[in-house]
Specification:
14 helices; 3 strands; Arc Repressor Mutant, subunit A; three-stranded antiparallel sheet
Length: 243
């Protein structure tokens, strides 16, 4: 994984936001493409959001691109955060992403939980359980951490969890935090992606955009959601990606 070769703040933040709800193989390709266009956090902070959304194409959940862009602007003006409490103030960075950043960037032992880590602990500590909360896991994660080299430890947990899932031992459905992702085809999420893709090539009227997206009754929900999230804007009857 290329972000492990040079775990700077920018590289890890980028990879962690990309890896939210996206598989590693897809992220690998997009990560390199993103860095070729925005090689450092200053370049990203100075770019219009519309450019960021265009490069993000193919990853889905485009709000993550906006969060990344806003975080870059925050870091550019206020400096790189280096404590847990500073990190969780960044857009799109919750406590688990902040924990990952503390371990991977600063090699500072900080417990956090995500799907691969759940998989490992479910397999070894909760073989007979049917409903498990992250609260049940958190103290075990804390007790088993490698305090001398947490970066390598959590990387190892991630790889081991991935291995277990490939063996059919994931058992993520027993997590009280697990939500099965709804099918993409036919969803409002799919139409949101179509709208962003179309607007990446041209600015259009609302009607022309509707016709190109062929979304039927789902168009309004997707369109209104993108406007509400600040990813698209409309003026003088023309819709465009937000700059």
């Amino acid at each position: 994984m290329p972000w492990r070769d040079e775990p700077t703040f920018y590289h890890v933040l980028l990879s962690e936001l990309m890896l939210q709800q996206t598989q590693v193989d897809r992220v690998r390709v997009k990560y390199e493409e993103f860095l070729s266009r925005f090689p450092d956090i200053e370049t990203l902070a100075g770019a219009p959001l519309s450019d960021v959304l265009k490069v993000w194409q193919g990853l889905g959940y485009n709000r993550r691109a906006k969060y990344l862009h806003e975080s870059a602007k925050s870091v550019h003006t206020q400096g790189i955060p280096d404590t847990f409490n500073q990190l969780i103030k960044l857009p799109g960075v919750g406590k688990n992403t902040a924990g990952a950043l503390m371990n991977y960037v600063y090699n500072s032992p900080t417990p956090f939980i995500e799907t691969n880590i759940r998989t490992v602990f479910f397999h070894h500590y909760f073989a007979d359980s049917r409903v498990i909360s992250d609260k049940d896991l958190s103290e075990l994660v804390r007790q088993t951490m490698d305090h001398e080299n947490p970066r390598e430890w959590f990387w190892a947990l991630m790889d081991y969890g991935s291995f277990l899932k490939k063996q059919g031992l994931g058992r993520l459905d027993v997590s009280s935090h697990y939500k099965k992702q709804a099918p993409l085809v036919g969803s409002v999420r799919e139409i949101r992606g179509r709208i962003i893709k179309v607007l990446s090539s041209a600015e259009l009227s609302t009607q022309a955009l509707r016709e190109q997206c062929q979304a039927g009754g789902r168009f309004e929900a997707a369109y209104d959601g993108l406007k509400r999230d600040g990813l698209i804007s409309e003026s003088d009857g023309v819709v465009r990606l937000t700059d």
